[in-house]
Amino acid sequence: MYCTNCGKEIPDDSVFCTFCGQKVDGGVSPEPKAAESGTQGQQPVKPPVKMNKKSLAVAGGVVAAVVVIGGATMLFSSPKATVAKGFQKTWKAVCQEETGLDAYLGMNSIGKMIKDGSSSQKLTGNASVSLWGAQLGDADVSIQLDREKNNKAYVTAGASYSGMDLGTVSVYMDKKSIYAAAPEFLDGSFYLNLKDVEKKLNDSDYLEELWDDQRIFLQEGMSSDVDAFMTEVQRVVKKDVKSLYKNMNVKKSGKETFSIDGKDKKCQGYDVTISEDDLKKIVEDIANTYLDEYGATGTFMPSDYTYDECLEQSERDVDEMRQEIKKYTSMIKDDLNFQVYVGPKGRVVSVKIEKKKLSAAAVAEVTSMQVGGTASVEVNLLGGKNPMDDMSVKGEVKFGDGTSASLELSRELKDTKTDIDDTIELALAAGSAYGSNRTNIELNGQVDKRNGQWEISLRSPILNTTFSADGTFENVKKGKSFSVSLENINLGSYSSEYGILDLEMTYEVAPLKGSISNDLPQKTIYDILDMSEDDWTEIENEIDMNARAIGI
Asked: How far apart are CA 163 and CA 137, in angstroms?
């Protein structure tokens, strides 16, 4: 018989259709054969196939899925997607993949403990200053920072010079307030309410009084939440970069061989074009985000100005800054064309830019020379785990008058089972029709992983400086705790064997034991936001009197 729902032929004794699952109610008998019906030569006629709504939906979904998967495959394998993902994967690897000293110490875990967890950090040191081999004096310093997950923090800093105690300064902070005290000099503590700060920053009368009394200029509407500001900057950058990826033009080009992790690899090349408008937008949006939040805060204001005159000057300063930004972004007069090579793991391993024509106006903005020129930049990121393990940057500018300048920067990390060797080299060169000169700077660091011994050295002719230090890493527990000692630091002149600074220092990081509480002097509490000029004068006199009493 035949199913009344889908029309398929099924066994006569079926209760359910073996094709569509529909319950069978008697079914439909097959048409008689030609010999029995008297219509010899005619084929039996099957009933039309019927599709219910559920079957149509399933079929439509399958077709749609095939189309979507096929389209997605084409999209994500397109040259544009490959390059965009390549940059993202490279950036992620640079930020997250620990190698060398970072892996040895477990720096990501330590960094997380310091930033988000409970930790205790302590820095102690002794510095001896000398001139031409003659010691001028020595100083001891000790700083301890304890921090809890709930943003509580306590800092204590003390120092002495040539055996004379210079006193200590302590600071306590939580989500609501900050206290600061120097018990040796002042019988009390300074107090700052963070919520009041937000209110005061939006109180024009208070800000005017602050200028009149203290000559401190702040603008109304500023925020003290730096984290919120950085989040906004990241949002702006992410939005602009997303737009840049969407708008860029990418075409496949030839392959090139690069040595990656000691092995030659053929990497696919791509010709990429980014519009000048997208480049300008990123620069301008980041700068304008800062100006919108902070304006011209920090700009020097003449002391004889009124507060209103300061506001007017601030507006002029901001306008000038915005014009300067446009002035420099206007130097971007063409789309940016460059080559990108994508290698193993889908990362970008090389970027090459060549600008065959620099406008005279753009050169004049930087060098004051009314000449054009050419420029080229090549960046190679060839490290196996972290792209920065084997890195090189080459840049060169040639001007129309025959002068030139070039920069070469390279880094090579060698990490074996027993040693870490990290070398950075920088070469600067300048040339003209009359000759050229080149300066090489080298920074080298080595770690013996068997005993924690390390040493570092720097030679810089351009700064006329040499630097060397060695010490020991101790208690290394892969991100849980460690201490590092600096035993023989020497900062000296490149042309002299005598050091001008000898320093011994120890830095320790470990999980916080116990909890933090505010034990600063509470006898007198000075609310910074409500203090007048007379209050500050009185405090200054008290500090001076106490300093004299202890011999300072």
From this structure: 10
Please tell me the distance from the alpha carbon of residue 249 to that of residue 244, in angstroms, as a whole number: 10
Partner residues linked to 252 by β-bridges: 270
Dist. CA 8–CA 169, nearest whole Å? 90
Round to whole Å and give the CA distance between 207 and 478.
Answer: 49
Rounded Cα distance between 298 and 296, Å, is: 6
- pLDDT tens sequence across 348-375: 999 999 887 766 666 666 666 667 788 8
> Buried (b) or exposed (e) across 501-521, using 16+ Cβ within 10 A?
ebbbbbbbbbebeeebeeebe
Rounded mean pLDDT, 97-120: 91
Task: Confirm if 154 and 130 have CB atoms less than 8 A apart.
Answer: no
What three-state secondary structure class fits 229? helix
CA terminus-to-terminus distance, the chain: 112
The band of 188, judged by pLDDT with boundaries at 50, 70 and 90, is: confident
Taking the C-alpha atoms of residue 454 and residue 448, their distance in angstroms, rounded to an integer, is 6
What is residue 463's DSSP assignment?
G
Predicted structure pTM score: 0.71
Strand partners, 507: 123, 484
299 — phi, psi (to 5°)? Answer: -70, 140
Looking at the predicted structure, is the pLDDT value of residue 185 above 60?
yes
Tens digits of residue pLDDT in 373-388:
888 999 999 999 999 9
Displacement of CA 70 from its chain's centroid (Å):
36
Q: How far is CA 122 from the centre of its chain?
A: 26
Q: Say how many CA atoms lie within 13 Å of 426 toward its Cβ.
A: 10
Residue whose tokens read 């569509």: 20
Q: Output the 3-class SS for 128-153.
A: EEEECCEEEEEEEEEEEEEECCCCCE
| Residue 203: both structure tokens together | 């109180």
Classify strands 482-493 and 373-381 as parallel, antiparallel or unpaired: unpaired
Q: Which two tokens stand for residue 396?
A: 């060169």
Rounded CA separation 48/31 (Å): 14
Q: Is the pLDDT of residue 84 over 90?
A: yes
CB 100 within 8 A of CB 422: yes
Tell me, what's the pLDDT at 221?
73
Contact 314, 305 (CB under 8 A): no
